[in-house]
Amino acid sequence: MRGDRFYCLRPCFCLYSGTSIFSFLSFAICLLPFTLSASTLSQQFDAQRAFSHVQKQVEFGPRPSGSTQLQQTREYLITQLRSYGLDVHEQPFEDQTARGPIRFVNIIATLPRSFFSSVFNQKPHTILIASHYDTKWIPNIRFVGANDSASSTGVLLEIARLIAKPQFQPSHSHIEFVLFDGEEATHNYQLSENNGPQDGLHGSRYYVKQAKQKAKDNTLSEIQAIILMDMIGDRDLSIQVPSGDSNLMKRLFDASTVLGLRDFFHYSPQPIIDDHVPFVLERVPTIDLIDFDYGPHNRWWHTEEDTLDKINPQSLKVVGQTVLKILEEF
Predict the structure, then answer these.
(1) φ, ψ for residue 35 (rounded to 5)?
(2) Burial of 209: CB neighbours in 10 Å, binned 0-12, 13-18, 19+
(3) Nearest to 310 by CA among 148, 184, 192
(4) Are 40 and 20 in contact (CB under 8 A)?
(5) Which parts of the chain register pLDDT below 70?
(6) Where are the beta strands (DSSP E) in the chain?
(7) 69 CB contacts (<8 Å, ≥6 apart)?
(8) CA 64 – CA 62 distance, rounded (Å)
(9) Measured CA angle at 31 (ends 25, 34), to 5 deg
(10) Pairing mode, if any, of strands 173-180 and 125-132?
């Protein structure tokens, strides 16, 4: 979407001389560039709509992987994404956990392949916008995860709604929306293949594994950027960005500065284990937008206090607008 420049395709029909009917139909591709206001896309973000998606997820209750509540949430998310005109498919798999084998399901939504790329067989670079949609399994408490993970999932839905609009669809990048299952660890995150069953990041690890198995298609190499969101609804928002791709970091801070939102985004001196890690290990450019200071001394994280009243729609808007602004400049 570099420079907010978009294109429409004008079909031109050719009538062959010497015939009374259309014996052949050809399309002359007429690229008609038009320029949208630099702020059009990001300013369209609807904070209340995003908040309503957060509320709906919370109403399902605790949503740990493999639960009926997560299945209901998944059905809701898929319905929303398809209503925007996106192509949606599920990526199911089974993995071992400390609770035994669990069936996980990633959700992947994409824009329908453009006419331009179909005709010329182009493979544009892919930009992944991602969140996880499961909640941590915590026995004996009602953990509904309003911030972790409903907030980022709600923002992703609103971004997807806007990107799917014909006037906003990019001409040079392929946008893919991914909702990972199984981000939460049962006990503690384990990343070593030689240290028993891996705990946590199940969905992102499986996605990367499948992409690597499609090496002949260079699936991973086509990914230009991954923008991951997690825990972004705190009413006292302070996004602490762990070390990421330098180009994406610059894009983030430039975009937030243009929008007057720079004070909400900061460098984090501490590494974060999140769904971006499997991609980082494969040298895919990533950035993780996360506010890992939830409540006084992080008191609300992974507790029954992670409830809807802690979520501020304006915080959702800060992150949503900034991500959209980044996309405007690709």
Answers:
(1) -110, 130
(2) exposed
(3) 148
(4) no
(5) 1-39, 113-124, 171, 191-197, 215-218
(6) 5-10, 30-35, 87-97, 100-110, 125-132, 173-180, 223-230, 239-241, 265-267, 286-290
(7) 60, 61, 62, 63
(8) 6
(9) 140
(10) parallel
Q: What is the pLDDT of residue 189?
A: 79
CA distance linking residue 132 with residue 219, whole number of Å: 21
- Give the Cα separation of 276 and 282 in Å (integer): 10
Beta strand pairing status for 286-290 and 223-230?
A: parallel
The answer to whether the beta carbons of residues 221 and 142 sit under 8 Å apart is no
100-110 sheet: strands from edge to edge: 87-97, 100-110, 173-180, 125-132, 223-230, 286-290
3-class DSSP state for residue 42? Answer: helix
For residue 212, with 0-12 CB atoms within 10 Å meaning exposed, 13-18 middle and 19 or more buried, which class applies?
exposed
SS3 category, 297? helix
Reported pTM: 0.86
- Hey, what are 42's tokens? 């990001």
CA dihedral (153, 157, 159, 164) in degrees, to 10, reads 150
Q: Residue 169: what pLDDT?
A: 73
Tell me the pairing of strands 5-10 and 87-97: unpaired
Q: Which residue has the tokens 């602490």?
A: 240
Angle between helix axes 152-163 and 47-59 (nearest 10 degrees) is: 130
Q: What is the pLDDT of residue 213?
A: 84
**pLDDT for residue 20:** 43
Q: What is the pLDDT of residue 272?
A: 92
Q: How many CB atoms lie within 10 A of CB 157?
A: 26
Task: Return the CATH fold of 37-328.
Answer: Aminopeptidase (3.40.630)
- Tell me what pLDDT residue 37 has: 45
**3-class SS of residue 54:** helix
Domain boundaries, the chain: 37-328
Select from 117, 42, 120 the least CA-distant residue to 320: 42
